[in-house]
Amino acid sequence: MSNLDDGHALEGLQNLDQQVIGAVYDQYFSEVYRYVLYRMGDSSLAEDVASDVFVRLLEASQNGRGPKTNLKGWLISTASHIVMDNLRRKYRRPEEELSDTMPDLSPSIASEIDQREQNQIINSAYAQLTPEQQNVLALRFGQGYSLEETANLLNKNVNAVKALQFRALAALQREVGEVDYE
Fold first, then answer.
1. Residue 162 neighbours by CB under 8 Å, 6+ apart
2. In whole angstroms, what is the distance from residue 80 CA to residue 4 CA?
3. Any idea what the Cα angle at residue 80 is, between residues 76 and 82, rounded to 5°?
4. Nearest 10 degrees: CA dihedral of 113, 115, 118, 123?
């Protein structure tokens, strides 16, 4: 069951077929995890959110509210909603990020600080984008999806995805200005 077809998977999920549930998890977990990790930047939180996506899939399938045709699209869309909920909570109660390790006092500390500042600038600019723009960038550059795959997942045509991606990148460039990407 390495390449599960959606029809068989959706039927198996509704019947709580253990083999199908395991196959769906095996086939899609890493993809959902990478998407969430790209959007949130925290590996342990990404694991929790990705797991929550599959719990929601089982609950929705049992209640007849699960995906009807596109399983992968449903999983990514659900992950996107959970990510947005988490980001909204985070912005309501901002947290200071603390380092888990002692700082290295070697001469490269200045370049590390520069890199962190650049990352903060980019993350701040990324947060200014609309959720739809963030989603397109996450799918295109975080997941490496093609324009066609991204358009399919977002239920848009390819030209709309191109335009959305162009606007998102232009907005990032306006916010970030000149950043040195060494």
1. 147
2. 23
3. 115
4. -100
Q: Give CA–CA dist 42/140, Å, rounded.
A: 19
pLDDT per residue as tens, the chain (182 positions): 346 777 778 777 777 778 888 888 898 899 999 999 988 888 888 999 999 998 898 888 878 787 878 888 899 999 999 998 888 877 666 555 656 665 555 556 777 777 788 878 888 888 888 889 988 998 998 888 899 989 988 889 999 999 999 998 888 888 887 544 44
Q: Letter for the amino acid at 179?
A: V
- Are 127 and 20 in contact by the 8 Å Cβ rule? The answer is no
- Structural domains for the chain: 1-94 (1.10.1740.10), 112-176 (1.10.10.10)
Report the predicted TM-score, pTM, of the whole model to 2 decimal places: 0.56
